[in-house]
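For the sake of transparency, this paper describes our internal protein records without simplification. The tokens are whole numbers drawn from a learned vocabulary of local backbone shapes. One such record is reproduced below, unchanged from the form in which we store it.

. . .
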Amino acid sequence: MEPPVVDVERQSAKPTEAPAASCCPKLQTLKKRADFLRAARAKRLPCAAFLLQARRREPDTASGLRVGFTCSKKVGNAVARNRAKRRLRAMARKLLVTHGREGWDYVLVGRPKATATHDFAAMCNDLEAALKKLHGGAQ
């Protein structure tokens, strides 16, 4: 019986190029309760399927764009809440990088029976309109 053939080139081959960096900045995620509470005391812009809360951070801490997502148990069970948050995250990745501002915190709050079922394109249009209203129309 012959010994198994081992492809030495395949084993030692390592990628020589690093993966291309993303063309858009990475959104930092809010994780601390205090950040969510600060955003809750700031501006609120209601939309049909979600609520946008936004605040400008102090100039000494203003580095990057931060976003948080939350859905209460009123939205539904864990499956419904996770689906709603997935849709909010997708919307934020699509629009906040282009329409959001550096040094701001944004919180997207899911709404019961709306966030998980509302038309995604309509939600994106609502977020874009809310950001334009929040920042005075000029981007």
Observations:
- The longest strand covers residues 50-56.
- The first helix runs from residue 8 to 12.
- The domain at 26-134 is CATH 3.30.230.10 (Ribosomal Protein S5; domain 2).
